[in-house]
Automatic annotation (TrEMBL):
This is Methylated-DNA--protein-cysteine methyltransferase. CDD domains: ATase. Its EC number is 2.1.1.63. PANTHER family: METHYLATED-DNA--PROTEIN-CYSTEINE METHYLTRANSFERASE (PTHR46460:SF1). GO terms for molecular function: DNA binding; metal ion binding; methylated-DNA-[protein]-cysteine S-methyltransferase activity. One of its GO terms (cellular component) is nucleoplasm. Keywords: DNA damage, DNA repair, DNA-binding, Metal-binding, Methyltransferase, Nucleus, Phosphoprotein, Transferase, Zinc. It is found in: Nucleus. Belongs to the MGMT family.
Length: 187
């Protein structure tokens, strides 16, 4: 059970596992919104034989709260036709970090709205877009605390040098996601 910031209401959290081309994604949420997406650590690049090319759910679709249905549909589209995600609604979020007024929240919302599929942004540039050009290190912290990776595309944030930088799912996953978006965008 998760308590919202007001502390008054509680939500029933539901967990679903999505088998994706990058491994098992653990997605949690409730009727109000998405709580978290947990990424697997990739130790090798996926090949067609290791992971499905589409997405499969561990649960019956009908039993999922609406935000989890929206999330799994969004992720399925992302892995199959990433360019189409721009026309899909983002599922509602119900994580305290995304509901409070903080620099981290501002950075994550800015990233979600301003950095489109197939694009990358430096930590420094994202800090500028979020309103504090000298907070590149704080942007790194915001990326580490992103509860909704892939949908909030922290994999698109790279170092000013052009190097990919760190990623919660590991650098191989970050490189795979960026290559996936680039290849699909060019088609």
């Amino acid at each position: 059970q998760v308590t919202s910031n007001q502390g008054a209401s509680q939500c029933k959290e539901k967990l679903v596992v999505l088998l994706s081309p990058v491994g098992k994604l653990e997605i949690s949420g409730c009727e109000t919104g998405l709580h978290e997406i947990k990424l697997p650590k990739m130790s090798v690049l996926p090949s067609g034989m290791e992971f499905p090319t589409t997405c499969e759910l561990s649960e019956a679709w009908e039993e999922l709260p609406e935000p989890l249905k929206q999330c799994t549909a969004w992720l399925h589209t992302y892995f199959c036709e990433p360019a189409r995600t721009a026309s899909l609604p983002v599922p509602p979020f119900h994580h305290p970090l995304l509901r409070q007024d903080s620099f981290t929240g501002q950075v994550l919302w800015t990233l979600l709205s301003d950095v489109k599929i197939g694009e990358v942004v430096s930590y420094k540039r994202l800090a500028e877009l979020a309103g504090n050009g000298r907070a590149a290190r704080a942007v790194g912290g915001a990326m580490r605390s992103n509860p909704i990776p892939i949908i909030i595309p922290c994999h698109r944030v790279i170092r000013s040098s052009g190097q990919s930088g760190n990623y919660g799912g590991g650098n191989l996953m970050k490189e795979w996601l960026l290559a996936h978006e680039k290849l699909r965008r060019e088609k």
